[in-house]
Amino acid sequence: MNVLLDILKEVWVLTNEMSPYLLLGFLLAGLMHEFLPSTLYTNHLGKNNFRSVFLSALFGVPLPLCSCGVIPTAMGLRREGASKGATVSFLIATPQTGVDSIIATYSLMGLPFAIIRPIAAFLTAILGGTLVNKVEASSPLPLWGSAPKQNNQEGKNKTLPQRGSLEGAFRYAFIEMMEDIGKWLVIGLVIAGIITAAVPDSWFTAFQGNTLYSILFVLLFSIPMYLCATGSIPIALALMMKGLTPGAALVLLMAGPASNVASILIINKVLGRKTLAIYLFSIIAGAIAFALGIDYLLPAEWFTAPLACMQECCAEQPGWFSVLCTILMILLLIHALSPYKLIGGHHHHCHCHDCEEEDSHCEAPILNSRFSSLNSQLSTLNYKIKGMTCHHCAANAQKAIASVEGVEQVTVSLEEGLAHVTGNFQEEDIRKAVESIGFEVEK
User: Fold this and answer.
1) C-alpha–C-alpha distance, residues 249 and 307, integer Å
2) For the chain, which residues make up each domain, given as ranges?
């Protein structure tokens, strides 16, 4: 019982330290999502040159996409014309950081880590993208069925949900993002609490002060394991408190979010073995290089000072503002993880054949509703989509299916894992469209 109380105490301290910065980070992420046009990314990433790789890394660093959401987003960019190098650059840079995780890193680990983390993600992404362009410069764009019609897409874009509102920014920040990464944030806090309170220091004796052993130890479990950029922060801090070097902590912050078993399998399937090998090499080489640089070239007190501060915070009572932010965070997390949603339900106007009422409960935005006169040539089919884990996954699945020739309307339910597709299309094109962004489909 004492150990459990100690774990809960550590989780409470970490949450109090992070919650004000997390809420700010989520808000900034929501504003970016709502007010930055998506064409900002797709219009500059199409050529097999250094500029596209550079811009892809630059765009990816502040985006608040987790490891699961970045895969379909990157594959969608690839389908829209991004070069293979730009796609890999985006895959490496984006999950490692985000405006929310950068601010959260500052809250727990200090300014040096908060600065070095995005720089490491940026340079590692440029390395991977440049190597891919050198090795596979002539790689063709993946296609399914017939190419999407431009005029058809323009018509569909007219019915996309309007962006650019504060309400949309708050909804994305505190409902959708919480639903996407809330579970992983809680897991990260709990693991950090267990490491700090329950794991004996003797378990880490061999790694204390030893950069090489620490790096190899962290790489061993961080490459295959799923860690989100924000959830990895308390774990990295807990490992440092047990004696691992700051460089090893950075390895966790880089390699953990950047790769996992699921992303490795999908990249191998969609982009090929050569690209996968370069992707993994860039992440591992970049993590090791920056880890050695931190431990041997930079002052140790830059990175150890937050540890002393954290230990002092454990003995002090948190301020009222931190407590209020923590309470708000807990309420948002409870709502995000609960199967019963009090707010933020995704109910949308729909004209699907299956809907008996005009106001149905489709779980995702309608991409097109041009059904003033339905005829017998149009059919509505349901497809089971495997692999969707977040709102970005569902949005990218919708976009891919909507691009297929003959599709007139599509809705995707993240909760049910279903796509409802109406039109006169080839079913094989639907399957290829979904598989091209890393998911699997069943009718």
Assistant:
1) 12
2) 2-337, 348-443
pLDDT digits (tens, 9 = 90+) for 90-106: 999 999 999 999 999 99
Helix, strand or coil, per DSSP, at residue 398: helix
Closest C-alpha to 195, from 229, 221, 223:
221
Q: Calculate helix-pair angle for 50-60, 111-135, nearest 10 degrees.
A: 150
- Here the tokens at position 408 are 């007139």
- Over the stretch 42-74, which tens digit does the pLDDT of each residue have? 666 767 789 889 999 999 999 888 777 788 888
Maximum mean pLDDT: which of 129-133, 172-176, 222-226, 267-271: 129-133
Q: Retrieve residue 334's tokens.
A: 């409870």
Helix (H/G/I), strand (E/B), else coil: 335: helix
Report the SS3 class of residue 382. Answer: strand
How far apart, in whole angstroms, are the C-alpha atoms of residue 79 and residue 434? Answer: 11
pTM: 0.77
pLDDT for 388-443, tens place per residue? Answer: 888 888 888 888 898 888 898 899 988 888 999 998 888 888 988 888 888 888 86
Helices (H), 136-210: 150-157, 166-171, 177-197
Please provide the distance, in angstroms rounded to a whole number, between the alpha carbons at the two ends of the chain. 50
**CB count in 10 Å sphere of residue 287:** 28
The CATH architecture assigned to 348-443 reads 2-Layer Sandwich (3.30)
CA 400 to chain CA centroid, Å, is 19
Q: Using DSSP, state whether 43 is helix, strand or coil.
A: coil
| Distance from C-alpha of 180 to C-alpha of 178, rounded to nearest angstrom | 5
Q: How far apart are CA 248 and CA 53, in angstroms?
A: 27
- Rounded Cα–Cα distance for residues 257 and 7 (Å): 24
